[in-house]
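Q: Convert this sequence to structure tokens.
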Amino acid sequence: MPASKKQVDLALSSDLKSVDTAETVVLELAQRLGFSEDETHKIGIALREAMVNAVVHGNKYSAHKKVHLGVWEENGGLRIVVSDEGAGFDLGSVPDPLAEENLLRESGRGILLMQAFVDEFQVRKLSPYGMEITMVKYAAQKS
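A:
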């Protein structure tokens, strides 16, 4: 198995411009690696959700906190890690966006979307603060 190669290592501001910056960088890499337009779109949605969560919910737009983005090429796929410097949360306490009482809420679907659009998804609380989301998207096998 070939070793992973880190392609991106950024510390971004806690503002929504950083979401666009991260998306541009990651999608250019995904296209270079040969991901299809559909797969690249899925990567973009998952990445945007992770970045928005880090900026808005994690760092709460704090100018003193950064969002960290790491991306690795891994066996023809991408490993994306987004982390914030916020207080963190318990994944088990996040309301189910598919529950009847939550269907009409305007937010709360980010984690569901990330899980739907990547092949592997993991959330980890960092110490002493922060959350880390790891997403892996494998390139579709060409026939």
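The domain at 5-92+112-137 is CATH 3.30.565.10 (Heat Shock Protein 90).
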